[in-house]
Amino acid sequence: MWLFNSPIGRKVVMSLTGISLILFLTFHCCMNVVAFFSGECYNVICEFLGSNWYAVAGTLALAALAVIHIVYAFILTAQNRRARGNERYEVTASYKTVSWASQNMLVLGLIILIGLVLHLYNFWGNMMFAELANIQVAHDPADGFAWILETFSNPVYSVLYLVWIVALWYHLSHGFWSAFQTLGINGKIWLKRWQIIGCVYVTILMAVFAILVLAFWLGFAPSMCCA
Ligand code: HEM
Fold first, then answer.
1. What is the Cα–Cα distance from 102 to 107, expressed in whole angstroms?
2. 9-23 pLDDT per residue, tens
3. Which of 25, 41, 48, 124 to mutate to test the pocket of ligand 1 (most atoms within 8 A of CB)?
4. How many other C-beta atoms are found inside a 10 Å radius of the C-beta of residue 226?
5. Distance CA 77, CA 105 (A)
């Protein structure tokens, strides 16, 4: 089938899964904004998600998207290297103009994957998984606010999360416009526009995550109460 067998088909799969993952991050970012204002309200969202069937279905869909995106990243990188040999770009004169992020998407992706494993261990493992497997953990599995407080009171985790967020910023700021280019947004003007829109959008998302880490690390977390 075209989507799986041809190089352009594989790039389309990468683009569509990438855009879907950015949409998830947008939801996750909006959810996390609530933690700036109230622990109690944040936990209402965590309880609503919990280990309910729709949250588990969402997690499985998300995992499938992430696995397809990662597997195709390896296939496409190997295919490009085979086609170009040691020369990673056909026209070496323009090599310098290719952004650092675009040359290092696979490495950035691997850093992001390691960070994601740590993040799932910190949160998903102590929340949804603990509830599903009926495992006793330090806090209530639905008390997302307590897990945030505990995770970012540890400076090692806070620094690792900030490094992870910077890697995500580089990866997404390139991936965003690259996805739209693959899906047919051509022409210099629109490409430039998508680059600017992508950069602003991704910067806002990552800034929210980073400021949350800093706020909880440095003791500016809100109280539990909604009022
Ligand atoms: C730095 C601030 C962040 C905080 C405080 C945070 C918090 C959380 C919490 C509380 C959960 C568990 C939700 C639940 O099971 O009800 C979760 C899950 C998750 N987070 Fe984050 N998160 C942060 C950043 C990120 C980033 C940057 C990513 C992007 C890669 C990410 C990806 C995920 C994924 C994939 C899950 C599992 C979702 C699921 O089970 O469907 N998180 N996060």
1. 10
2. 999 999 999 999 999
3. 124
4. 14
5. 9
Residues 6+ positions from 82 with CB-CB distance below 8 Å: none
Q: Which atom of ligand 1 is nearest to the CA of 58?
A: 41
Task: Using a cut of 0.85, tell me whether the model's pTM lies above it.
Answer: yes
34 lines ligand 1 (CB under 6 A): no
What residues contact 142, with CB distance under 8 A and at least 6 apart?
A: 43, 46, 47, 50, 127, 131
Q: Which of 11-15, 95-99, 107-111 has the lowest mean pLDDT?
A: 95-99
Q: Please work out whether the CB of residue 148 comes within 6 Å of at least one atom of ligand 1.
A: yes
Neighbours of 23 (CB within 10 A): 11
